[in-house]
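Continuing the batch. This is chain 6 of the set; chains 1 through 5 are on the previous pages. Same settings as before, nothing changed between runs. Recording input and output for traceability.
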Amino acid sequence: MRPQKIVVLGGTGFVGRHLVPRLQRDGHALRVLTRNRDLHRELGVLPRVAIANADVYDRSVLAREFAGADAVVNLVGILNERGNDGSGFRKAHVELTRTVIDACIGDGVPRLLQMSALRAGEGTSHYLATRGQAEALVQSSPLAWTIFRPSVIFGDGDGLFFRFASLLRIAPMLPLARARARFQPVHVGDVAEAFARALVHPHTRGHVYELGGPRVIELGELVRWTARMTGRRRLVLPLPDALGRVQALVGEWLPGKPISRDNFRSLQLDSVVRDDGLAALGIVATPMEAIVPRLLGAEGRRRDRNRQG
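Output for chain 6:
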């Protein structure tokens, strides 16, 4: 395997913090673009990893940063936006992807690995619509592309189990919109492995990989399971859609924006794979039961030590 020079956008986010060390172990040289490198020094101490301050929406900046690269990995994505008109999603998903493609072509970068989402281009949510529009741009480009569509991603500090664990810690009862929505949680390490394998296997070019774990679970059961794993007895109250929409509207104004109207629209589609992309890449999916209880237990012990201190 020949080491490559790889530029990573979104490399300081949840998936990026796992992917960058994984690619570094393969001997690749990585340049991670971020708005504030001082906040991510832990990645910069890795051999062959450089963290650079960059405005990734600036075409001239990307042209400079992509020069000489063998591949670009675009992990940038948002789950919420300010307002509800889709402009934030279009900027992060569609406009940025167009700029990345133009910069790759201009600099002669042949390879693009693009993060997307299950059910991209389906349904009525701005999130899924713009993910689909970004995919269309990638697929119509002359680049050697690979697209990944994960279900919800879990791992240390995720926005799934850890977020619900935080809510369950303070709420004796949790009203839940779209409690019957189904997910196939996939481990962040498996997602990182999928990207790493795609980089070195030419047969992955021009393919879309759906990434899901071994278990399909409804949102309500996922929350109840999280409560059990944290040793809490909590009532999870499924809401009819009329009340769920109200919860989503109110949620947009709460700290951390636990749910939004666009999240509600996304939840109207099940996030379950139709083709097992992990298996196609030779990856055995990690069960959430093997990872999450230990992580939530460790998080609880950290909180206890902080309170005692």
